[in-house]
Amino acid sequence: MSDPTPAADRLGTARLATLPAAVARPGYDRSKVTPGIVHLGLGAFSRAHLGVYTDDVLASGATDWGIVGVNLRSPAIVDALKPQDGLYTLLCRENGDDRLRVIGAFLDVMNAATELDAVLEAMAKPEIRVVTITVTEKGYCHDPATGRLNEAHPMVTADLADPMRPRSLPGLIVEALRRRRDAGVPPFTVLSCDNLPQNGRITRAVVARFAQLRDADLGRYVADGVAFPSSMVDRITPATKDADRATVAAGLGLNDAWPVVAEPFRQWVIEDRFPTGRPAWESAGAILTDDVHPFETMKLRCLNGAHSTLAYLSVLGGIETVAEAMADPLLPKVIRQLWDDDIIPTVPPVPGTDVAAYTRDLEARFRNPGIRHLTLQISSDGSQKLGPRLLAPAAERIAVKNAPRVVPLTVAAWMAFLRQGDDQGRAWLVADPMAARLTAIAREHKDDPAALADALFAVGEIFPPVIAGDAPFRKATTQHLRSLLDRGLAATLTAFLFR
Ligand code: CS2
Is residue 1 part of a domain? Predict the structure, then answer.
């Protein structure tokens, strides 16, 4: 990111003492903190979540759990944060109440594409005991339908051909672990913080398999010797906009090239399996437990499933943000039905949590007008998201002979969304690792809903046989798709809700 402002006007260590009193700042001496974590994936989410929890731990006196932040591909975020000594601002917003907090937990930032040696060197250091990850679903190079490494993934094949110069997430982790093994340094614990079901298991599956494909000994070392706890992460964090930068600059009296915006709510439930230690994240409110699964099922299906449903329907109706979708007369009713009929019955008991009350709280979170969370942003990567969020609960409903009611509507909306535009002249882009293939199908069957649905149900990486082979599910989806294409969003939702 280019920054036209003079350095003196920029957030950085030297300016911390001059921040206005209303701005919270690191309550500890950053020069005394050493790194204990390497974090992979410097998007807004990790900086609004991991960064904040860890900042709290450091403020409570720990000095050996600073974070080295690594971005895997785009250098933009590193270019933004490096001149700021890793500092950035969290703009926490709720109903007109803006709070600013400068986060100090990231001690250094690097880009793996341009500084690979330095990154691997950092990851191999004995003081690094945890590697955390937020690279989004697609970063795992797995097959979403099976959870296993996609061995034909171009980055995986490239990394297997040149394993000491890795570019993929599994390739990078395995090369760092190999260096540690060869140097006699115990392995770090690998903690996924992405929205995948049993994210620790998926991470273990892709990393151990990649290691095994490199060599059998390394494969055994990773499978037997490395811990991959699961975690459920939650905080709504829309992409940063220029208006947010301006708000932050006004509040700080300084420029911050890449602040993050988030809601006040945050939750982190972590499987407590860290053989070489971990920060006391529980002191910052995280829940450490033996079993993350119920929490993660609740969150992925209730929050993310509703998000995806709102996203595809909203894009079709020209509704730009989640808060605007919640102000629509019909969409909140659809979401309530999704929760009550298709999702809540599939969520196992969650310790200390009433799942129905959790969905009511979600409604309030979605309505937060301070958060401009773009429906188009959430619409990205549907090929990776539909399965864990919506098709898995739908399959469970089908298995107990209860036809899902709302999920076919979401799937129909996603199918219509793949056409990248509508008859009213609206157009949008599909961002998805499978976009080329999916949008080609949508183009080919643009005006034939039945053929479009058939061709998309045949994509086995997305639709498991229980869904693709379920005649009622297919029929309902095709009917909704026809209605969306012929009659538009409002008429489809009205017919759906009040038939
Ligand atoms: C969203 C998530 O973009 C998306 O797919 O559903 O990023 C969601 O906002 C977070 O998981 C909330 O914790």
Answer: no
